[in-house]
Structures are given as structure tokens and as C-alpha cells.
Design brief:
single chain, mainly alpha, two-stranded antiparallel ribbon, two-stranded antiparallel sheet, 9 helices, 6 strands, 61% helix
Amino acid sequence: MQISTASFYTRSAAQMSRLNADLNRYQTELATKKLNVASQDSTAWMMLGGIKKDDADATAFRANITLSRGLLAQADTALGNVDDRLVRVRELATRAASETLNDKDRVSIATELGQLRDGLMALANTRDVRGHAIFGGVGDVAFAKDADGAIKYTGIDATGATVVDIDATARIRIGDASEIQVGIDGSRVFGGASGTTDIFKLIDDLKTAMEMPLTDPATTGGTTGTGTTTGGTTGGTTGGTGGTGTADPAAPFDAEAARSKYALAVNSALSKLDSAEAQITSARAANGARAARLEIESSQLESVGIDREEARSSLEDVDIATMTVQFQKTLTILNATQATISKLANLSLFNYLK
């Protein structure tokens, strides 16, 4: 079999070109990764595209979980502060139930109750790090005073219908098909929703009880006028009225009824405090359950991320040891091929005749 000189050189050049291309590819993969273009492995390339998309989603979900943790922690802090103030309200109500209190003590309790009410309203309108009301509502606040000064939840309209669905609106996505509620329905914490105790009304009623008169107002003030003399006859007239008003003679002050009404108001407040505190406890428990769920979701993301990284590595990363051996073997073959072709190229009749 005869091989022409042109065919010999063409085949030799093609062989060395292929070996050089293999060397360049191995060198590129050693410096970067083994899958750089879709033409190398279209199936693996598509799989890598899906992995990269999932990685981007996981990064966003992790950020949302971190944000949700902060929001839930802020909500728990607010609920804890509300709980502390309710404990103080209970202390004052229990003190008010004592029969040893005088009018000055009750005025002092009423003043502190007013301060606690204002503090609770500020807590009820606490905003989270995003500027949203933790306890829902609409607009800038969750609770506002109505025309009568009563504090009402803004997420319920004048007819009592709910206009803000916290379960549907205060949610953050933490997975492909997973969301978590980060807002708290203030109408179920502070009152307003059906079947709940209105904490603000409870305090208002207790404060009103503290301001109730328990003694006859006619005996607590008033001055007696001095009579005048007319025509030599001394005629005494009574001048002035009591500083706190004069009781209606037709309806004399009933101290026993007043104290009974006072005791009923205090006992009612103490009873309602039980359900009010239960509302706070329930809200904190639900908030804690959501925080625990975040830990589970975070752990799952990490586990899936590890599996995804292993899959990506198997498709894309280079086995340095194997690739180095392959590179060295190909380089040796190329050198041997070049040397062989050089020797064969010199085997000609003219070289022999020399």
C-alpha cells in the first residue's frame, strides 16, 4: 500500500491538530471548569441552568427567612411589652379591690391607668423594620381614637366588618410553595374581633371606676353664707353652695350602692384580664411556632443546597488529579507523534543516496 507524500503530511497535521486541541481543552478545563459551552454536553448544560435558577431562588428565600426572623422577633418583643403592662394593670386592679384605699389612692391609680392605656396604644401601633404596622390595620396606624376618644382597631370598619385580612396580606414567601405570616391581627390581640376582650375598654372601665365617688359629695365641700338684717329683724339666709355640688334631696346618695357598683367594676376588670392575658399568650405562642417553622425551613434549604452543590460539582467541576494525568498523557502522545512524523519525513530515497 502506497501513501502519497501529500496524504502523509495531511494526516500527520490533522493528528497533531487534534492532539493540540485536546491539550488546549484540558488546559482550559484545569483553569476554569469542564463544561464551558452547551455543545460539550447539552443535557448537562440544561441541568446546570436549572441548578443555577434554584440557587438564585434559594438565595432570595434565605434573605426572606432572615427578614422574617427579625420581624417575628420584633413582634415577640412588642407582645412581651404588652404583657408586662397588663401585669401592671392587674396589680393596680388587685390593689383597687382593697377596701383600705382612700380617694387620693384611687385618683393615683386612675392616673397610672391612663398612662398605661397610652403606652399600650403606642405598642399597638409599633412598626416593623419595613415601616409596616406589626399589628395590622390600614394606613399608618393599626389603632386610632374615634370621635368619643375610644381606641379602635382600624382594620374593622364602622359596621364591624373586617377590612384587613392579616392572614392573607402580612405574608412573606420563604419557599417555592411556602409562605409565612409575619404580621399579627391586632383585633385578636387587643380586642375588636368577635369573641375577644377589648383591652383598651377594659382599662377605660377600670379607670372610670377609680373616678367614681364613694362618699356623699354634699359632705365633702360647701360653705355657709352669712345672713343679713333687714328692718331690725334678723333674717338668716343661707349663702353659697358646696364645692362639689349638693345632692338631690329626692335621690339621696347611696354609699352602699356606690361601693357595690365599684366592687363589681373592679371584679369585672379582673375577670376580663384573664382573657386579655390569654389573648397575648396565644399570640406569642403562635408567633413562636412561626419562628420555629422558619428554623425548619432554613435547615431544609441548607440540606437541599448541599445536594444541589454536589450535583453541580459532578457536572461542572474538574477532577484535578485525573485531568492532570490526562493532560500529561496527551502531551506525551503529541511529543511522540511529532518525533515519529519527523523521523518518517526524513525517510526518502534522496536522503538514503546521500
